[in-house]
């Protein structure tokens, strides 16, 4: 059996465990895969501290998306975050590498999304679908590819992937949503920054940018990382 890499823990306290998930790893188990998941790794990690400890998934990323995933160490915090997600999470930022030269410097994509019987998300009307809002900024572009910084206001399933396909700029490596190019040998989507307000604390977290992104967009990724360092991985107590 292939040895699993050590988890990249971004932040941990008595209530939260926040991890930088690699691409190609399931967040939670499926019928076909029960063991090789981020949840399993997090559970084993927490049980080494105390066999009685439990871990709860708060949200998930697609298998081929890398980046920040939140786990709760008790069910109360899990339910609090899931039930008040839009109030607790004030920032969700991604980096995406897409096919083609994105002409607009920035734009907001608004559409109503629905999933079909093949588990593929597509745009429909307001009666049938759920509103999805995605903002993007073009950091760099060539004739073949563009690097985007993305912030989402809503968190619909496959939201970023589906909406970028519909503006004719699918994420590279995302065959499900129309990509025909895969220079990274993975999907070009990474959850890079997360901001949450919970228990009178503000927590801003940054994940390590994948090396394959850096190899493709070295100077632009460096500039992006320097910008994020102004915030850093911080916790601020607002109990005063």
Element layout with pairings:
Elements: E1 8-12, E2 16-21, H1 38-49, E3 56-57, E4 66-72, H2 75-83, H3 85-88, E5 89-99, E6 106-115, E7 121-124, E8 130-141, E9 145-152, H4 159-166, E10 189-198, E11 201-206, H5 211-216, H6 218-229, E12 234-237
Give Rg in angstroms: 18 Å
Topology, number of strands: 12
Shape: globular
- Oligomeric status: single chain
Number of helices: 6
Mean pLDDT: 91
- Catalogue the unreliable spans: none
CATH superfamily, by name, is Pseudouridine synthase
Structural class: alpha+beta
Distance between the termini: 51 Å
How many structural units, i.e. domains? 1
Give the SSE order as H and E letters.
Answer: EEHEEHHEEEEEHEEHHE
CATH class: Alpha Beta
Q: What fraction, in percent, of the residue positions are helical?
A: 10-25%
The proportion of residues in beta strands is 35-45%
Query: What is the CATH fold-level name?
Result: Pseudouridine synthase
User: For the report, how would you describe the main beta sheet?
Assistant: 12 strands, mixed
What is the CATH-assigned architecture?
2-Layer Sandwich
């Amino acid at each position: 059996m292939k040895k699993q890499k050590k988890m990249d823990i971004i932040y941990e306290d008595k209530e939260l465990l926040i991890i930088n998930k690699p691409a190609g790893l399931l967040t939670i188990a499926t019928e076909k895969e029960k063991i090789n998941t981020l949840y399993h790794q997090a559970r084993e990690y927490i049980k080494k501290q105390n066999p009685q400890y439990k871990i709860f998934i708060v949200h998930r990323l697609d298998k081929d998306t890398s980046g920040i995933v939140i786990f709760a160490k008790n069910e109360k915090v899990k339910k609090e975050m899931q039930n008040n997600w839009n109030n607790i999470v004030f920032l969700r930022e991604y980096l995406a590498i897409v096919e083609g030269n994105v002409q607009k410097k920035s734009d907001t994509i608004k559409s109503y999304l629905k999933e079909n019987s093949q588990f593929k998300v597509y745009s429909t009307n307001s009666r049938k679908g759920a509103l999805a809002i995605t903002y993007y900024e073009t950091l760099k572009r060539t004739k073949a590819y563009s690097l985007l910084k993305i912030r989402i206001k809503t968190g619909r399933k496959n939201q970023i992937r589906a909406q970028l396909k519909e503006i004719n700029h699918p994420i590279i490596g995302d065959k499900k949503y129309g990509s025909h190019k895969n220079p990274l040998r993975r999907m070009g989507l990474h959850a890079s920054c997360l901001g949450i307000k919970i228990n009178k604390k503000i927590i801003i977290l940054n994940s390590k940018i994948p090396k394959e992104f850096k190899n493709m967009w070295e100077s632009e990724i460096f500039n992006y990382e320097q910008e994020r360092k102004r915030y850093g991985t911080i916790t601020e107590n607002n109990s005063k």
